[in-house]
């Protein structure tokens, strides 16, 4: 269940676009600050006093969950190196039969550029989930993100090791900025 929800979050966050490329608007944060208290994680760092273009609230509209028989609606918020998610899972494609909700929160960090198989340049994104549905949690996910105006796409896969990064985006599940 943990893996399904994390994969849902990551794929929802990291879905990519196939349109024209305007370059990646993400900025890499201060290299002397980390995900939590100043230690560096795989070269990716963030600061509680710095902002990125991920700042704000993003939503992935109701859609199928890959490898599962349900649909979800995902909201994720980024603020000063912290993230929170709210996922609503539904039994039907019009997302009216709610059967489960999940929340998570933690820290995130941006890393270096990743050249994708389609020629676009994405940015490494590390999530360190520290709370899941109110319980303590400790899980790191390694993914990529690409922003085109008010739409962001996540990698088609996520990994639990800093030695692997996605090489393509999931263009079928974009997130749209809502504020």
Structural features, described:
The chain has one helix spanning 2-13, and strands at residues 56-64, 71-79, 82-90, 98-115, 121-132, 135-148, 151-154, 175-177. The protein is mainly β. The protein has one domain (2-177). The two termini are 30 Å apart.
Shape by Cα distribution: globular
Strand content: 35-45%
Described by strand count, sense and barrel closure, the largest sheet is: 8 strands, antiparallel, barrel
Residue stretches low in confidence (pLDDT < 50, at least 5 long) are 1-47
Biggest sheet: strand arrangement: 1-2-3-4-5-6-7-8
- Structural class category: mainly beta
Number of helices: 1
Q: Give the beta-strand count.
A: 8
> How would you spell out the order of helices and strands?
HEEEEEEEE
Measured between the Cα atoms of the first and last residue, the distance is 30 Å
* Overall mean confidence score, pLDDT: 78
**What is the gyration radius calculated from CA atoms?**
15 Å
Query: What's the number of structural domains?
Result: 1
Tell me briefly what this model is:
The protein has about 180 residues and is mainly β.
Write the layout of secondary structure elements.
Layout: H1 2-13, E1 56-64, E2 71-79, E3 82-90, E4 98-115, E5 121-132, E6 135-148, E7 151-154, E8 175-177
Antiparallel strand pairs: 1-2, 1-8, 2-3, 3-4, 4-5, 5-6, 6-7, 7-8
Give a quick set of tags describing it:
179 residues; mainly beta; 44% strand; disordered N terminus
